[in-house]
Amino acid sequence: MRFDCDFIGPLLTSGFTTQGLPALLAARGLSLNETTDHWRTMRLGLHDFAALGGPVRVLRHVVHPLAEALGYQDVQREEAIVTREGPEDGGHSMRAASGALLRVWSFGSDSDLDAPNKRGALARISPIRGAARVLRASGETAGIVTNGTALRFLLCDPAGPDSQIVVALAGRSGWESQPTAPPSYRLLRALASPAGIAASGEIFDAARLHQAGVTKALRSQARAAIEDFLGCVVAQPGNAAALPAPKILWRQALTIIYRLLFILKLESSAEPGGGFGFAASDTWRRAISPNRALGPLVRRHLDLQHDTGRLLEDGLRLLFQICRDGLTHSALSIAPLGGGLFDPSTTEALDALQWGERAVALLLDRLLWTEPRARERERVHYGALDVEELGRVYEALLDLEPDRATEPMVRVRRGRVEAVLPAASAIEGIVEHIAAGRFFLRTGIGRRSGGAYYTPHAFVR
């Protein structure tokens, strides 16, 4: 099922909601099948609201019909809740006869749900952040925030960062324009109903297990990313005279990999203040982001064999330049990140070579998508990755040693032991043939013998 909403945060990734969640909900009697229950009332409320009004009008025309649709019998005003920021708005509560409760905050249609309402010392009190703090302070796992034009279903995982489902209510793609109940409405009815809230702990556990499979696959794919990227770069005819030693290529390609892991993590971070503030900008998402802007080009190039010119190579080089030097524009401002990660001297030899569209396409493909065992290809959700997970991905790369084949070689595997040998000397256990001149990786012991290990978690953060 394809959902007409956005998923933010580590819990409800698009892969989990399409592959794991439906079966879990069905087992709990929470169906995602099309339903017309209360849909007409919900639409009429949105039409009457007409995407214009204050918080009271939003409460009357959006929240009350929604409470009825979700299976709640009453909407009550709640007292302020004391959080680490002091007393904060407790919102309203949807209440069911069973005693189940779901908090909801209504704001005027001119309110930005992500932007702070005030300046100075109160700049942290944006609608979404305030609601999340109240939910955590009160020990609740879910809540709703809406301004009548958009709705956010906020999920607070006690063991991790917050997640959101973002639904458009107004406009051509919003609920008010849909003649029948859209998938996002059916999903919200399942998750935000009293029975859905009761099952939130089980849903959180299943989501974490699903994401664990994705991140485990990422470790092996990071190796494929760097091997495929350098393999294509080495094969470029124009690079033959300027190729440095394999170890130099390898070391500089490691830097490029970690630059991408760094950017992908921080542009999708679900922790307030823990990621790139500019990642929510339309300019970043449409023109610069490796995930949102370059990702679709990767699929066109690899799946549809579209000629993307130099869009992927130039896009990746521009991304690194912006991170290094910053960007000042009327629609987007990015301060230089500083540090050694984006220092041009760390990738000087590799930057001087031609990369090619296929090299960049394979590099991004391996880092943006995984194919976990027995599941379809799905996006890697970097917001769910802890720095420890990124460290393990990098550790797996540091254990490898690079080389170029001077003659036909083969990769052989016996149990867990793997080796690369001349083709003429191998008899059995061959898993890959390596042509002469090709760049390849093999398991080494250089990192361990040199005493190099991943930096401790607290220091990295």
Q: Top keywords for this entry?
A:
461 residues, alpha+beta, 2 domains, 7-stranded mixed β-sheet, 3-stranded antiparallel β-sheet, 18 strands, 16% strand, elongated
Structure description:
With 461 residues, the protein is α+β, with helices and mostly antiparallel strands. The chain has 2 domains: 6-198, no CATH class; 215-394, no CATH class. Helices cover 41% and strands 16% of the residues. It has helices at 14-19, 21-27, 39-49, 55-70, 127-137, 183-192, 194-198, 200-235, 246-267, 282-288, 295-303, 311-325, 348-351, 357-368, 387-398, 446-449, 457-460; strands at 6-8, 74-77, 81-83, 86-88, 92-95, 101-106, 142-146, 150-155, 163-168, 327-328, 333-334, 369-370, 378-379, 400-404, 409-414, 417-422, 430-434, 439-443. The protein has a 7-stranded mixed β-sheet, with helices on both faces. It starts with 5 loop residues before the first strand and ends with a helix.
How many domains, as an integer?
A: 2
Low-confidence stretches: 119-123, 447-451
Instruction: Describe the oligomeric state of these chains in a short phrase.
Output: single chain
Tell me the overall shape.
elongated
**Beta fraction:** 15-25%
How many alpha or pi helices?
17
Distance between the termini: 37 Å
Total beta strands: 18
What integer is the average pLDDT?
A: 87
Largest sheet: 7 strands, mixed
Radius of gyration: 25 Å
Helix content: 40-55%
* Structural class by helix and strand composition: alpha+beta
Q: Report strand order across the widest sheet.
A: 1-9-8-7-6-5-2
